[in-house]
Amino acid sequence: MDSLVLLLGFLLLTLFSQRFSLPVVVALDLKNSTRYNKQVSTLRLERIEKRLNKINKPPVMTIQSPDGDIIDCVHKRKQPALDHPLLKNHKIQKVAPERPKVMKTMKPSSESENDTVKAKTGGIAWGHQMWHTNGTRCPRGTVPIRRTTVSDVLRAKSLFDYGKKSQRRTNVNVNRQADAPDVASGNGHEHAIAYTGSSNEVYGAKATINVWTPAIEQMNEFSLSQIWVLSGSFDGTDLNSIEAGWQVSPELYGDSRPRLFTYWTTDSYQATGCYNLLCSGFVQTNSRIAIGASISPVSSYASEQFDVTILIWKVHTQFILLNSKSAHDPKLGNWWMGYGENNLVGYWPAELFTHLADRATMVEWGGEVVNTRSTGEHTSTQMGSGHFAEDGFGKASYFRNLEIVDSDNSLSSVREVSTLAENTNCYNIKSSYNNDWGTYFYYGGPGRNPKCQ
């Protein structure tokens, strides 16, 4: 009788645990981050594992990075991008379109010939990332993908929110020009950006950005420096955005290192798109650059500066038709990303977009942080180097050689840019021009200080 009771008790306990998901304690010990324990139901773990099975494809080879990342070398035809319902019959583009031609646009310099701004940069060798340290590379025919872990997902607010930016919302209190981008937001995002006018037809953008390691106050805050290529409505739900740059995000990556990142959305950050390769969409073609991997070395205050060059572009349809024998040229429409001077990472297929299917109408360059005000005060999360724009070279962060791609597939220096920062006591921006750096700007700040509360 006693054995029967015990058996019935065991069966009931088993059924209860399966139905109601008894909590499992998961210990997360994150390098360069916060150590904590988190209770996770077995049901949630099952859902996370299902999501990870979609993101982490079976690797041909695996590389252990000294920063703790695991890089999986995945066959290019097995990468997450091709799971997208709009890309079921997509053929990976083997040959990139013609790169934009460089067109020099000169105007009187606002800096003296002896200005210290003149090219005193270290420059990061193309594609150098921490996982390259031991000399191992992914074989040809594969692409390197940073492996996503259960711990990565558990740091997010929810499974749905993992790998996504929050929606940009209007803040009517910001004073700005009528054609200014509606970047001001009520969800704690703050910016210091330069931008082109919204009436332009743009087919891409380029800039060189120096890389820093800004301090982050809260795990769910981030600091990034990027290019935005945009089209659609800022006050609606149809904004299309393609983004690339570097960011520090403890929540997304579990550490405080600057990392190469990409992002895309077609519905104002609501449901579509994601960071890096955390959903289907972006098609990677490069076997030596891992999106989401850490960048090294980085700039130091009053010392050597290291920067990266980002290019996002597409070739105008008419330009391809004039230079192609086929009206069905596969190069039509895709938005390509370059990293360094002559290296392609991959592309966002045209099928993903609505407004950006043809062209962009605005480009933004600059910094963004999240200010959660978790303590009731402004965050001390830094933007850029953590120093204001007026501190200048070697101290403040910069974007240099701002360029846009025209309809004839040529790169030209941006002649005029407008600037915007929601709270210049926290983060600011100052633009200028010289013959070496073209149009450039310094930007950033420390966040909380006596004038920023």
Description:
This protein is mainly β and 453 residues long. The protein has five helices and 21 strands. Strands 5, 8, 12, 13, 14, 15, 17, 18, 20 and 21 form a ten-stranded mixed beta sheet that branches. A six-stranded antiparallel beta sheet has the order 11-10-9-16-7-19, with no helix packed on it. Strands 3-4-6 form a three-stranded antiparallel beta sheet, with no helix packed on it. The longest helix is centred in the first third of the chain and has 19 residues, at 2-20.
* Count of β-strands: 21
**Apparent shape:** globular
Assign the structural class, choosing from mainly alpha, mainly beta, alpha/beta, alpha+beta, or little secondary structure.
mainly beta
Helix content: 10-25%
β-strand percent reads 25-35%
Low-pLDDT parts are 10-37, 105-119, 169-178
Helices, by number, come to 5
Sheet bearing the most strands, described?
Answer: 10 strands, mixed
Question: What's the rounded overall pLDDT mean?
Answer: 84
Give the radius of gyration. Answer: 23 Å
Distance between the termini: 70 Å
* SSE succession: HEEHEEEEHEEEEHEEEHEEEEEEEE
